């Protein structure tokens, strides 16, 4: 009892990870934004429907869920090693050609049936360590499924915001194209009246052609982005319904990231890497126990007779029970290398776990920096657009009054269109940065690691 209560190999303990008291670029305190379910963060109903459909129909998520089912079955297979292995065997010869007629002794020339029992006594903990590894593999695969869910939600949201950005830029491009067409018409009339030169007309026509090319480019990007969203939603390419415009999208006024220590308990990829490390350490025990003899309880019982009619006679019974011992001999050195390989794999898993944590902290800090700078950039671009709009009005008045040439109007108009497009990009960057922070923090999971319930309409059960 004392021997079997122990298992070979090291027991798992979580590695010590140094974390700071708060994130370096954190500016707000409070409950982490990651505690919000995604439908409270992303309030656009059309976007919610897209995410809803993706969580139900996305093929990558279905594959991840099926892989969890596979590991559940494999864990069940490993757990069966704890119980005895019982098999039956039988023989019915068509024709007996001589000897071997002794009752109670099974031979190919006898009718016989037997039950065989084989039960390994887990003295060294090989089976227990195998079960630890299989259980950790299952939990790692489950965390991978959660990571797929989180990545899917953020990917749909980012692609949707990309689509809204292209929509807004397309409106600006259409406005620019209309404006340049008016300029071309004015310049053509002035050229006929001798009030301008062919050079001015050529410049306006060049700007009009550039605007037309921009319209075509944005139309291509919109179509391709709709196709991308359709695939994420698990459907064939089709138009995507829009809800609020890019400027109408809401974001939380305060975006607290929470504590760095919470990240280790929340992010699926960190939890997956930890379970992978746990499985690798358990396999050290498996490799170490394999180097020792296996002790099994064996037995068999049956009936054997050269004649079918006397098969069940009392003197046709045979059986035996006892202990079996099997251990490595000439392959002991090979098993030693197997243990060293398992130890090296555990070192790799530890390095991967630590690297995953470093990348996680980096992604959070990057997202915090992007949110802060994108907000400042958006405010600056707003002022630039307002200033250029005023400048364009003044330039038009000066041109109409004959004070300046139309070149000043052209330059100001070009700057205004570029500034309006840059303003859209800044707004898009802020929205995407919030989504990236939510993903970097492992959003969608409670602090204890359990799933946040999904809307009823998704049909995605928590045990999936």
From TrEMBL:
The keyword Membrane appears for this protein: yes
Keywords annotated in UniProt: Coiled coil, Lipoprotein, Membrane, Palmitate, Transmembrane, Transmembrane beta strand
Membrane topology type: Lipid-anchor
Entry protein name: RND efflux system, outer membrane lipoprotein, NodT family protein
Subcellular location: Cell membrane
Pfam families in the cross-refs: OEP
Family assignment from sequence similarity: Belongs to the outer membrane factor (OMF) (TC 1.B.17) family.
InterPro entries linked to this entry: MdtP/NodT-like, OMP_efflux
Principal subcellular localisation of the protein: membrane
A GO cellular component entry from the record: plasma membrane
GO molecular function: efflux transmembrane transporter activity
Gene3D superfamilies on file: Outer membrane efflux proteins (OEP) (1.20.1600.10)
Coiled coil regions in record: 201-235, 361-391
């Amino acid at each position: 009892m004392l021997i079997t209560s122990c298992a070979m190999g090291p027991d798992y303990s979580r590695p010590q990870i140094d974390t700071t008291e708060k994130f370096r670029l954190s500016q707000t305190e409070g409950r982490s934004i990651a505690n919000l379910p995604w439908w409270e963060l992303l309030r656009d109903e059309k976007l919610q429907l897209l995410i809803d459909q993706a969580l139900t129909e996305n093929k990558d998520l279905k594959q991840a869920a099926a892989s969890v089912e596979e590991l559940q079955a494999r864990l069940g297979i490993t757990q069966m090693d704890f119980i005895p292995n019982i098999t039956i065997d039988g023989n019915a010869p068509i024709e007996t050609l001589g000897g071997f007629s002794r009752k109670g002794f099974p031979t190919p020339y006898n009718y016989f049936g037997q039950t065989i029992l084989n039960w390994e006594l887990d003295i060294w903990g090989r089976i227990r360590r195998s079960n630890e590894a299989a259980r950790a593999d299952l939990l790692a695969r489950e965390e991978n499924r959660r990571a797929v869910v989180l990545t899917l939600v953020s990917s749909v949201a980012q692609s949707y915001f990309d689509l809204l950005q292209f929509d807004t830029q397309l409106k600006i491009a259409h406005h620019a194209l209309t404006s340049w067409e008016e300029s071309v018409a004015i310049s053509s009339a002035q050229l006929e009246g001798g009030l301008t030169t062919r050079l001015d007309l050529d410049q306006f026509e060049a700007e009009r052609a550039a605007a037309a090319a921009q319209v075509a480019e944005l139309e291509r990007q919109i179509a391709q982005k709709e196709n991308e969203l359709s695939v994420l939603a698990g459907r064939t390419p089709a138009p995507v319904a829009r809800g609020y415009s890019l400027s109408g999208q809401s974001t939380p006024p305060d975006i607290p990231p929470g504590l760095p220590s919470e990240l280790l308990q929340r992010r699926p990829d960190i939890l997956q890497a930890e379970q992978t490390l746990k499985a690798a350490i358990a396999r050290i025990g498996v490799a170490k126990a394999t180097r020792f003899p296996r002790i099994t309880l064996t037995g068999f019982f049956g009936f054997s007779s050269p004649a079918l009619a006397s098969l069940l006679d009392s003197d046709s019974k045979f059986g035996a029970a006892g202990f079996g011992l099997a251990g490595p001999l000439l392959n002991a050195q090979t098993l030693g290398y197997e243990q060293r390989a398992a130890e090296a794999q555990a070192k790799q898993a530890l390095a991967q776990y630590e690297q995953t944590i470093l990348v996680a902290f980096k992604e959070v800090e990057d997202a915090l920096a992007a949110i802060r700078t994108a907000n400042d950039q958006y405010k600056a671009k707003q002022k630039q657009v307002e200033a250029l709009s005023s400048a364009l009005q003044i330039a038009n008045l000066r041109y109409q009054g004959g004070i300046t040439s139309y070149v000043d109007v052209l330059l100001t108009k070009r700057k205004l269109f570029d500034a309006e497009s840059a303003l859209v990009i800044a707004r898009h960057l802020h929205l995407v940065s919030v989504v990236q922070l939510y993903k970097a923090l492992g959003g969608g999971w409670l602090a204890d690691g359990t799933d946040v319930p999904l809307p009823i309409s998704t049909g995605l059960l928590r045990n999936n």
